[in-house]
Amino acid sequence: MGRLRKLLIPGVDKKLLVRDAVKTMPELTRRRFITAGTSLGALTLLTGCDVVDSSSAEELLKKVSKFNDAVQAWMFNPDALAPTFPESMITKPFPFNAYYDLDDAPEIAGADWKLEVRGLVDNKKSWTLDELYKLPQVKQVTRHICVEGWSAIGSWTGTPLRDFLKLVGADTRAKYVWFQCADKDGYNSPLDMRTALHPQTQMTFKFGDEILPRAYGFPMKIRVPTKLGFKNPKYVLSMEVTNDYKGGYWEDQGYNSFSGS
């Protein structure tokens, strides 16, 4: 009862507080938060903030505004699928997206490239592109959503990442799959294991039924339609199954690591 009384301090309108907090959330996850019916009590448990006065209310809002990884992971439904679309809705031309110009995109010789597999896996062999092309593949037409506010629909074909992780004997109890890429400045990005095992998370080898173009990540990108675009690494050189959080190019600059629905 003591905790309940502390939450009922006069002057703190609980409904308005939650409503304002939800406004600070990314659009991708706001709907899931509302659907879950999350209350002020749940927010206090998730953020560790007691609403005892105006300053503590501001602290709660600050933490929700940052929308930390724990909250997003709590709301993530590993069975929920991102929307799919007919091929007639594919965006043409599909935009190039990166923090550099297309002229600066990596140029990788497919014949020389190998995917390095590291960490908590039984089979650490390197995979050639020809070997990867022989794996069973599926097509998905899904929307790419950029953190800058634009989106585009594309057709992606490749091997579900969860199938590959099973093939190499990955420890799926581990926390992350971490990708190192060939982009300038050493692009890298972690993917939480539940998202790595999502049925739509894909090792992509084709765009629009053609071999993946340089602009979209040749020889391989990781397509994650449940995440923002910067969580879809391109020009992948290696993947590592690990319990260690290794950061990432954008994550190290303050972007949220979960960044998904």
Automatic annotation (TrEMBL):
SUPFAM superfamilies reported in the protein's UniProt record: Oxidoreductase molybdopterin-binding domain
Domain Oxidoreductase molybdopterin-binding: from-to ranges: 106-250
Transmembrane segments: none
CDD domains linked to this entry: bact_SO_family_Moco
UniProt source species: Bradyrhizobium macuxiense
Protein name (Swiss-Prot/TrEMBL): DMSO/TMAO reductase YedYZ molybdopterin-dependent catalytic subunit
Pfam families: Oxidored_molyb (PF00174)
Top-level taxon in the UniProt lineage: Bacteria
InterPro entries linked: OxRdtase_Mopterin-bd_dom, OxRdtase_Mopterin-bd_sf
